[in-house]
Structures are given as structure tokens and as C-alpha cells.
Design brief:
Blueprint: H1 11-32, H2 38-45, H3 49-55, H4 59-81, H5 87-104, H6 108-118, H7 128-142, H8 151-162, H9 171-187, H10 204-212
Helix pairs in contact: 1-2, 2-3, 4-5, 4-6, 4-7, 5-7, 5-8, 7-8
Length: 218
């Protein structure tokens, strides 16, 4: 009696499991840190540990896979910028995207830092940087951004704003919009009228409490 070779599961099922693992890891890593075990993730998802190992032999491989997927989101956001009319508007949209990404994916920076240490050759500059660089040069030529600004300045300012997402609401809803106005005002050519700041600011007491508050607290 001959036995037939075992049928392989359709690739779409394997990809679905991989996505489930990455989705769950993203959420768990955001709330519990990056050292949650693969066994724990497998149990949460009711998957055999062998299934997890087939996709990610180690937790470091899982972190790398998550990093690559997050980079894909950044790349897609950069492509979306191309549909925005106006160079200055594309620059502003990039800054807003960066802040929103940090709000939506709080684990992104931690994952990036770990991958930078473990797999430095895997870290790359997103094509989004080229899109933003082009927008900056167009805006400078049009006189809508000061002419001594570089794309690295824009990326640094966006990162500074994104760093403020650790502040909790209701203070965050006051602080970030005010800082955004100040950042955009700093990009304006000299002589242009300055916009007013949104409501606020928070008090020094509130600011001190924010600085000492752990965002992981319940």
C-alpha cells in the first residue's frame, strides 16, 4: 500500500498565519515590551510553536519581520504624499504623517532601535526621504519654505514632534498642536505673517507631571 505525499497547506494560509503573528506581536510588544517569548505569542494565537518557528526561528527574526513590515507602511505613506498638490503641503503632510504613525504604532521606534543594534545592515533609508527632499526643494524654489532648510531638518523636526506622543490626553491634545504651529512657523521665509497658537499652553505644574508620568501606568 502506497501513501501519498502530505499535501502542503496553501501559501495563502501560511501568509495569513505570518500576518497574524506579526499583528499580535505588534500589539503585545507595544504594551509589554520586546522580550515576550515566542511560546507566549503562539499560545495567545492558539498556534503550534512549530508554526511560529517556521516563520520566525527566533524572537530577533520576528522583530526583523515586524521592522520590515513597518518600513513598508512608511514607504506606502511616502507614495501617498505624491498625490498631494503643492510642495509645501507635501512637507506638512509628511510631518503630520510622522506624528500620526507614532500615535498609531507606538512600538515602531523601539523595534527600530532593537533592529539597528541586532541587524544594522537591514536598516535602510525609506524612499519617502526622496519624496520629501523633492518637496523641500520645490517649496524653497517657490518661496514657501526658508531657503536654508534641508530634508534632514524636516525629518528631525518631524521626529521631535513625534517624540511628544508619550504625553497623555488631555494634555497631548494641547501640546502637540501648539508645537506643530511653532515648527511650521520656523519653516516660513522671513517676513511672512505668523499664525496664532492654538489654545493653551499647559501649566508648568501639568508639564512637570507629564514629565514624570509613566505612560505604561494604568
Amino acid at each position: 500500500m502506497t501513501s501519498s505525499a502530505p499535501r502542503r497547506r496553501p501559501r495563502k494560509d501560511a501568509l495569513a498565519n505570518r500576518d497574524r503573528i506579526l499583528d499580535h506581536a505588534e500589539g503585545v510588544f507595544a504594551t509589554e515590551g520586546l522580550d515576550v517569548s515566542l511560546h507566549r505569542l503562539a499560545e495567545d494565537l492558539s498556534l503550534g510553536i512549530g508554526t511560529v518557528y517556521r516563520h520566525f526561528p527566533t524572537r530577533d527574526d520576528l522583530l526583523l519581520g515586524l521592522y520590515h513590515r513597518l518600513q513598508e507602511r512608511v514607504d506606502e505613506a511616502g507614495e501617498a504624499l505624491l498625490s498631494i498638490e503643492g510642495a509645501y503641503e507635501r512637507v506638512v503632510a509628511f510631518i503630520d504623517q510622522t506624528v500620526q504613525f507614532s500615535l498609531d504604532v507606538p512600538v515602531a521606534r523601539t523595534v527600530g532601535a532593537r533592529v539597528q543594534r541586532l541587524f544594522p545592515d537591514e536598516v535602510r533609508v525609506s524612499p519617502t526621504a526622496g519624496v520629501v527632499a523633492g518637496a523641500v526643494e520645490e517649496a524653497k524654489a517657490a518661496g514657501t519654505i526658508r531657503d536654508d532648510v534641508d530634508v534632514t531638518d524636516i525629518a528631525s523636526l518631524a521626529g521631535m514632534l513625534a517624540d511628544l506622543v508619550w504625553i497623555r490626553d488631555p494634555e497631548r491634545s494641547v501640546v502637540i498642536p501648539r508645537m506643530r504651529v511653532l515648527v511650521l512657523d520656523a519653516l516660513r521665509p522671513q517676513g511672512e505673517p505668523r499664525p496664532g497658537l492654538p489654545a493653551g499652553p499647559v501649566s508648568m505644574t501639568e508639564l512637570t507631571r507629564m514629565a514624570h508620568r509613566n505612560r505604561m501606568d494604568p
